[in-house]
Amino acid sequence: MSFHLSVADVAATIDHAILKPELTLAEVDAELEVAARYSLFSVCVRPGDVPHVVDRLEGTGVATGTVIGFPHGTTSTAAKVAEARQALADGAVELDMVLNIGRLRSAMLDDVEQDIRAVVEAADGHVVKVILETAYLDDGQVVAACHAAERAGASFVKTSTGFAGGGATVEHLRIMRAEVSDAVQVKASGGVRSLDTLLQMRELGVTRFGTSASATILDDVAARVAGSEGTGATDASSY
Q1: Low-confidence ranges of the chain (pLDDT < 70)
Q2: Angstrom distance (rounded) from CA 186 to CA 166
Q3: Residues with catalytic roles
Q4: pLDDT tens digits along 185-222
Q5: pTM of the model
Q6: Domain residue spans of the chain
Q7: Residue 156: beta bridge partners?
Q8: Has domain 7-225 been given CATH number 3.40.50.620?
Q9: Which residues contact 209 (CB under 8 A, 6 or more apart)?
């Protein structure tokens, strides 16, 4: 799989992560400026920041997403549903929810699926991405989580929160892409900090990337495109 290498095309695959708990509002605003400057697909922000972010990004074309049950996935289903409804009321348009990792590792797959389905139903047609937190899972658990997420109606399966000591890996992404149908997309998050990593994962069928290194990645795109002008080598498969 290859795609044309341009800043706009790569930017359209990025959810810019603004999730560190210690960020001040001024630091959040600086990251929003990055998202707007590069015309990223979206930002993924802390739930309490959603109203402010929606207001700041008005007119930029950058969507606002947020997280549910983040980062551990251990809140009750009722709490996740309430959080999802509040996020949408505040203006978020995409939700990245953490599944119940402990229940998954306990092989309580009905509970895992019900938890996801409740958030999908609360989202009322908005995109729900299910974070598996693959760093804590074996391959069989990754497979089971993918199947539960698809049965529950999720739009995406996503590797990681970025807060578990491990992020997206090629091996897990291969499994995830193979274990969901074409109706479900795959998002890589955690450790996506270079253009080469993004391109390698894109070749596996990943369509969205969560990263805080958006500027670094897109500046690299711009440099490579500029360097290849006149050679015709502007396809991702060339790198």
Answers
A1: 1-4, 229-239
A2: 17
A3: 96, 158, 187
A4: 999 999 999 999 999 999 999 999 999 999 999 999 99
A5: 0.94
A6: 7-225
A7: 129, 185
A8: no
A9: 13, 14, 15, 187, 188, 189, 192, 198, 201
